[in-house]
Amino acid sequence: MTNLPKIKRSIAHWRLLTTFLLLPLATLTAQAQQIEGTPGSPSATTTIDGKQLPPEPPKFGGVIKEDAKDSKPYWPASVVPPKGAPNVLLIMTDDQGYGVSGTFGGVIPTPSMDRIAKAGLRYTQFHSTALCSPTRAALITGRNHHSVGFGVIGEMSTGFPGYDSVIGQESATIGTILRDNGYATSWFGKNHNTPTYLYSAAGPFDQWPVGMGFEYFYGFMGGETDQWTPYLFRNTSQVFPWLGKPGYNLITDMADDAINYMNGLNAAAPDKPFFVYYVPGGTHSPHQPKKEWIDKFKGKFDMGWEKLRDQIFANQKRLGVIPANTELTPWPDTLPKWDSLSFLQKKLYAREAEVFAGYAAYTDNEIGRVIQAVEDMGKLDNTLIIYISGDNGTSAEGTLEGTPNQMTAYNGILKLPEAEMMLHYENWGSDKTYPHMSVAWSWAFDTPFKWTKQVASHFGGTRQGMVISSPGHIKDVGGIRSQFHHMIDIVPTILEAAGIQAPATVNGIAQKPIEGVSMVYTFDQANANAPSKRDTQYFEMFANRGIYHDGWYAATTPPAAPWLMGTAKLPDVNDYKWELYNLTEDYSQYNDLAAKNPDKLRELQALFLTEAAKYQVLPLDNSILPRLVTPRPSATAGKTVFTYSGENAGIPLGNAPSILDKDYTITAQVTIPNGGAEGMIVTLGGRFGGYALYLLKGKPVFSYNMLDLERFRWEAGIGRRDLFGDALKPGKHTIVFDFKYDGPGPGKGGTGVLTVDGNEIARKAIPHTIPILMTIDETFDIGSDTRTTVDDSYKLPFRFTGKIDKLTFKLGPDQMTNDEQRLMRHALERARD
User: Fold this and answer.
1) Are residues 70 and 161 in the same domain?
2) CATH number at residue 518
3) Are 566 and 707 within one domain?
4) CA neighbor of 662 nearest in space, from 564, 548, 741, 747
5) Of 781, 782, 650, which Cα lies nearest the Cα of 236?
6) Helix (H), strand (E) at residue 691
């Protein structure tokens, strides 16, 4: 009997434990919440533990009787972040390498970035993935880009987990996490993380910003857009704010909208913290700043690209954003030296850099307006600001010479006549151009590193300047941090700063672990020189690979330059040469130690494969063009006949019939009212490439714009005026444009025939067509034209004043050469293996 008290205590403990284990989840959640104010009152708030998002709905805590006067109401407490949680302003520019911003030694002033650096810290070993949407996926999820389906841009997505361009429900974004913890969340600018086949009004919208935790979205879809007439959305509706606004530019409009949003939020709920994700299109092509910003840089680049590198390198050493022993990597033999250029070439290339610099400075200026708005609201002292210069290195997609129309480069036209280029010298950057600059400038703006955007193996593609300010938490203002970090480290940094943990489940779905590590430890001055908490990080893009581990870095040598736009023959992914660097002694990847230390190289190569298997990097794929034409899920996949009626503008490219590299027939059955009709029947594209079928003064016209280099028109000729020169008479008519393609192979010519009511009115053979990409941000419009004109014979919106009874597209098969088919099959076979 002496053990009876002990036994009773054990039974009591067991009952207590089982009672706890059997408690409903809602009760446990409620116990984990901290309620401020009187429970049940309208002003009560609660902070949740955040393990489960959204939290279980709280139980009603009032009293319900038959009569309301005998009952007691009870309001659920509003969810708020932990006390003291900061506002968050996350800023990232586009296509800017380490040497672009003045903050990191560049010659382009970036006073807004300087402002954050002076109030906080500069980070000198911060990294991207080398490409747009992969970096952005990593940034908003805290997970590696392959882990969330963005091993490559969405336009090249394939049906493998690491490459399908779908951020799964198991990888909730920072928007979702902060929203469900009581933040107001918003996204301004570029959205390159929605699958291209989901851009239409048909949705679904779960992969749009508003479906990924961002309550408000104002920005453009895809990798780039014309800044004068952007492909712009408010939430899920396309908007056209430039109409009737001469001088409109999206860079300013976006800042205006963000400021209006924050002011409205502050007026409605001044105590509600905000998370603003601010990602302008500057400085991705097209480079389109306002003219006054271009003028500020007149003559600033006449020294040429090699001397520009020297200036940036000297500035970087003076500022301390590169170590004193850093060596400037050599100028590549594949790029021309400035002194080898003609007078006209120097004049043109200097102009390209002036426009790019104006765009970078203009973008930073508008970012400064957003930052100032935070201060004007009195909230700067409680706002964590993260400002990243570029989502990858400076872009080399402008060809060796630059181009007034980036669409030419995207279509494999890598050289334009000098006379064609000089025609745009004065209007370079205006709405008459869609420009990009010479690769040589891009290389220089990535000083002190080798390579550019798209190249994940070298820091010219992945090293980004970044600054962070956190008032009250960073004492060492103006300091420099050299710990090795990556885009995936931003989400855990924000969460730690806000006192919010990553959820275990979201909407009942178990979450993948956050793969980044918080950088908050670097805020402490005592940790200024602390070892990095990120000891390993892989890199991969188009099979160019890199692996960092404890100060060492192994990387493949890129077998082809990105400015060749995928046209070069590439080796098998297992046949790449590898390089090795000791980053503790060699900041710029100058001294390749692979031959001297093969054991270390083998160790890191093995580590890369381990990381690749862990994070869905496999299968490796170095193809570019085959992936561009890979079939993807969509409402139009596999269709060869498309039928429409009435007016329907704004259909995205991915949902439109593609007439590239094939036979096609467009048949429009229209009704002409009394008094005649004119206007657009159907169009895709615009000023920089596209086609249109329309009535001009009542007469049918088919116009084909060959990338703004040449235009072809089919219309009634003078010799047939007696029969077809007059406008279509009232009544029903059938207009047909039939095109026979001269394939196989991309970009070949063909013969088009325009008929009305079965009678031929125009026949013309053309020598070439657009081979790969007709447009990026123009839409497929029926009954009007919403963006830019295909030619100058009409003015927008050119709404059709008759009736479109039926519009039909019939498409023939794609026509590729045997070699192209073989390359496609080989790429798919390798992917399957």
Assistant:
1) no
2) 3.40.720.10
3) no
4) 741
5) 650
6) strand 689-696
